[in-house]
From TrEMBL:
Monomer. Interacts with CLN5. Interacts with CLN3. This is Tripeptidyl-peptidase 1. The keyword Cytoplasm does not apply. Keywords: Autocatalytic cleavage, Calcium, Disulfide bond, Glycoprotein, Hydrolase, Lysosome, Metal-binding, Protease, Serine protease, Signal, Zymogen. It comes from Erinaceus europaeus (Western European hedgehog). Residues 1-21 form the signal peptide. Its cofactor is Ca(2+).
Length: 564
């Protein structure tokens, strides 16, 4: 078939394989554990699909990320507005026109775009969607902790070849909602502490360890704000937050409720993850206006994380700091999806948003590739354009003193993203000086290494569904704590007429850990085999891929991050 027939195929919808391409041939489509198929969806049923349109000027975007985030650059802190980002990356009119024409011909209705015009979300019937995306076949699945129902295709999809220069990928077919970073309740340590010692991490313990006084709270005179994002039907309850603050919030001024919920806040059972995020973001970043992105209650065919990215590109006024406890195995995602999400994270960086991702709760991770074991990096933790937060425990579980590695702390080296220049020196130094390096076949030493920072992740008290729950652990706990502390630093920056911190990594690595407690003891978990015996990387002086540069010492960190 020649080009002419292929172009006709575009209008006729029936696409011979010669005239089509597969945008995500490497996307994993195996059913994740905990999900069950309920059979094929009714052809007349409605679903919504998200089309990621090809953007422009990505080299310029990269340059801008670097200049606005580098304290040595005259453009440092001169962030772009959403409209300026749109101006830069907006797809060409040929792309917009071609994709719209194709969707219209397929009978797509009510397509919604975002400010940057690089995503389109459209409603179609299952029948239309299966014609449009040749090979796709929609089935209904149920799974996850809240028995969520989703529509997904167990088969790959193809698009007309004429769309190859215009569409990155189609969202809503393959990726299942994330099972959030497996927050765990760990058994309480043996031994009962004498009077005067703490029995688990509370806001008091966090604020004491990280040197926050009762005066280190939001002033209420700036419009500073912070946010956390929840996926997979995770709700928080206002009443849990109120009860948490009644029990644990006596020693510092704080806000009594969340300022804004974006998305739908379901009525269901509260999730421990959601309760934890809100309670600790608002205890560390105390008295700072807090938003919650709640992507639950949306349509069955949507991908919650993708929907959150769309929201970022459709809201011109956003909180400065976002904490996200979401991650997938890097190897389970298609490379087009990973690259495009990475571009979305760069868009956020040029706008001066600080995005903090949990590093994950499986240490270095482990999987088997053609019979040999390797560590397993997680994404977006491995993106060079986010700040990734690992986890620590107290060396003495009952005393507010030194921190050591929490063995679950996610960390390692990306197999997708090469090492960014900002961490060149720190990572080479680690690789050449660590006395406990795992065999080189287990990790890709040339990749982006993470985490960048850490905070306590072990033994938290959370109030959920009216009940105080002890010993909740995971990097989902350390991430909002660090987020709140960066919001307090933003508060001081805004009060002194400076821009918010934005994408922190270039500055963080330039300052080589100033203002942080260096965590130098302990190793994280990995493959349980003879070769590595459950040990991944080990922390040491300076940066390491277990706890990054370390944990916050607020007054010292404020000093190093207040100017310029
Ligand atoms: C983006 O925001 C506009 C204006 O509020 C809205 O009409 C549109 O539906 C939004 N886009 C998406 C994809 O939700
Ligand atoms: C902060 O905390 C550490 C350890 O708890 C302590 O040694 C230090 O003096 C405190 N203050 C400052 C300003 O660093
Ligand atoms: C906390 O914020 C409120 C406004 O939301 C403000 O009136 C109050 O002064 C702040 N508290 C402190 C201690 O700064
Ligand atoms: C904060 O204030 C600035 C300057 O007054 C304004 O441009 C911005 O929209 C405000 N942000 C929020 C979240 O209200
Ligand atoms: C190692 O990482 C680089 C990027 O830094 C990548 O190009 C390469 O494919 C990776 N190797 C493996 C075996 O995954």
């Amino acid at each position: 078939m020649g080009l002419r027939e292929c172009l006709l195929g575009l209008a006729a919808l029936t696409v011979a394989s010669k005239c089509s391409y597969s945008p995500e041939p490497d996307q994993q489509r195996t059913l994740p554990p905990g999900w069950v198929s309920l059979g094929r969806a009714d052809p007349e049923e409605e679903l919504s699909l998200t089309f990621a349109l090809r953007q422009q000027n990505l080299e310029r975007l990269l340059e801008l990320v670097q200049t606005v985030s580098d304290p040595g650059s005259p453009r440092y802190g001169k962030y772009l507005t959403l409209e300026e980002v749109a101006e830069l990356v907006r797809p060409s009119s040929l792309t917009l026109h071609t994709v719209q024409k194709w969707l219209l011909a397929a009978g797509a209705r009510s397509c919604h775009s975002v400010t940057t015009q690089d995503f389109l979300t459209c409603w179609l019937s299952v029948r239309q969607a299966e014609l449009l995306l040749s090979g796709a076949e929609f089935h209904r699945y149920v799974g996850g902790p809240s028995k969520t129902r989703v529509l997904r295709s167990p088969h790959p999809y193809r698009l007309p070849k004429a769309l190859a220069p215009h569409v990155d990928f189609v969202g809503g077919l393959h990726r299942f909602p994330p099972i959030s970073s497996s927050l765990k309740q760990r058994p309480k340590p043996q031994a009962v502490g004498p009077v005067g010692l703490h029995l688990g991490v509370t806001p008091f313990v966090i604020r004491k360890r990280y040197n926050l006084t009762a005066q280190d709270v939001g002033s209420g005179t700036t419009n500073n704000s912070q946010a956390c994002a929840q996926f997979l039907e995770q709700y928080f309850h206002d009443s849990d937050l109120a009860k948490f603050m009644r029990i644990f919030g006596q020693s510092f001024p704080h806000q009594a409720s969340v300022a804004r919920v974006v998305g739908k806040q379901g009525r269901g059972h509260a999730g421990i993850e959601a309760s934890l995020d809100v309670e600790y973001l608002m205890s560390a970043g105390a008295n700072i206006s807090t938003w919650v992105y709640s992507s639950s209650g949306r349509h069955e065919s949507q991908e919650p994380f993708l929907q959150w990215l769309l929201l970022l590109s459709n809201q011109s006024v956003l909180p400065h700091v976002h904490t996200i406890s979401y991650g997938d195995d890097e190897d389970s995602l298609s490379s087009t999806y990973i690259q495009r999400v990475n571009t979305e994270l760069m868009k956020a960086a040029t706008r001066g948003l600080t995005l903090l991702f949990a590093s994950g709760d499986s240490g270095a991770g482990c999987w088997s590739v053609s019979g040999s074991h390797q560590f397993r990096p997680s994404f977006p933790a491995s993106s060079p354009y986010v700040t990734t937060v690992g986890g620590t425990s107290f060396q003495n579980p009952f005393r507010i003193t030194n921190e050591v590695v929490d063995y679950i702390s996610g960390g390692g080296f990306s197999n997708v993203f090469p090492r960014p220049s900002y961490q060149e020196k720190a990572v080479t130094q680690f690789l050449s000086s660590s006395p406990h390096l795992p065999p080189s076949s287990y990790f890709n030493a040339s990749g982006r290494a993470y985490p960048d920072l850490a905070a306590l992740s072990d033994g938290y008290w959370v109030v959920s569904n009216g009940m105080p729950i002890p010993w909740v652990s995971g990097t989902s706990a350390s991430t909002p704590v660090f987020g709140g502390i960066l919001s307090l630093i933003n508060e001081h920056r805004i009060l002194s007429g400076r821009p918010p911190l934005g994408f922190l990594n270039p500055r963080l690595y330039q300052q080589r850990g100033a203002g942080l407690f260096d965590v130098t003891r302990g190793c994280h978990a990995s493959c349980l085999n003879e070769e590595v015996q459950g040990e991944g990387f080990c922390s040491g002086p300076g940066w390491d891929p277990v706890t990054g540069w370390g944990t916050p010492n607020f007054p010292a960190l404020l000093k190093t991050l207040i100017n310029p």
